[in-house]
Fold:
Amino acid sequence: MAFALNTYPVTFRSRFSGGKWSSEYIEKPHRTPEEEAAMSEKDRTALESSRNNYDDMPLVNYTSQYGLACFEGLKAFPQKNGSLAIFRPDRNAVRFARSMEGLCMPPFPQESFVSACVETVKRNAALGFLARYRDEWEKDSFMTADSIYIRPFTISEGGIGVNLSREPYVMVINTPVSAYFSSDSCDAVVTDRIRATPKGTGWIKACSNYVISALAKSEALRDGYMECVFLDATYRSYIEEGSSCNIFFYLKSGELVTPELGDTILPGITRESIIELTRDRGLKVSQRKISIDEALEETKECFVSGTAAGATPICSLTYHGKKVQFNGGRTGSLTSDIRDTIKGIQYGRLPDTKGWLVPVV
Ligand SMILES: *Cc1c(COP(=O)(O)O)cnc(C)c1O
Structure:
């Protein structure tokens, strides 16, 4: 499975209490990765599950009861020289602090965020839990390459009445990950559901937002699509996002369009990286409203972007039962170019001219 939970042994935990953050690294039970791979499935599952259990944390809390929490997702990429590098953790640090503030939590300091990401990856790697570079990934532009997923998140203190969190925990776990979308389909469908509303929490990487996304995505998968696309809540006509990724349309006019940020769109780090990279090449890139009608009429290529997705082509969009295919159903050249460029930088095959990679070891 592409995104199975196998928490690496070392986890970061911090707690806000008495006006300050107190942090620790916790090493959970493990053997060597090779020994674990050789265990029976039952024993291995039990060991892996034990790394996901914390009996010194409250079960009943504002997160488990009301979904009050936010999270981040970023990756460490194995490099050819055997090292690991994290892609733009400083940007996730900024977003995480903003998300926490948006949920009225004390923001987690940005330097602590970056060092917790670096340090968990480093400590897990020292125990042998890491991803190793493989030359054969270069043949398909890292489409099937492995990486280490870093998941920072909040959990509230114990409590039962609807409330905000004054003394949250911040955790950072690492888990292995390989390619995200299965490649058998590249069709997307416009969902009727509403992910985010004006004045709501759509701009926050808030856990509660993902219930709607998961419902819409499972309906799309059930109906044979790879992805769903949300329209705005007010006019039901402007494109917003995919289920948990941003979306781009390369129009016949040569303009690359992605919906403008506001309070309903999640400001993706991949999104901002793609905007910067394509602008550098002299492409006209616009962050603006794009209606579903314009998108269906004018699109040459379409793709979604995110840490998990990279840049993933969308080859058709179905709206009210009508399917419109882009670029004859094949991945377009701009899309594959952007995908290869992002992956190339992340896996160190292209020069990191922007200083986006933070080395771990
Ligand atoms: C995380 C996320 C994205 C993509 O953000 P990246 O920083 O590029 O991974 C886009 N939309 C939603 C709703 C998300 O949760």
The mean pLDDT is 96. The CA atoms of residues 223 and 244 lie 18 Å apart. The chain has two domains: 10-177, 187-330. The longest strand covers residues 147-155.
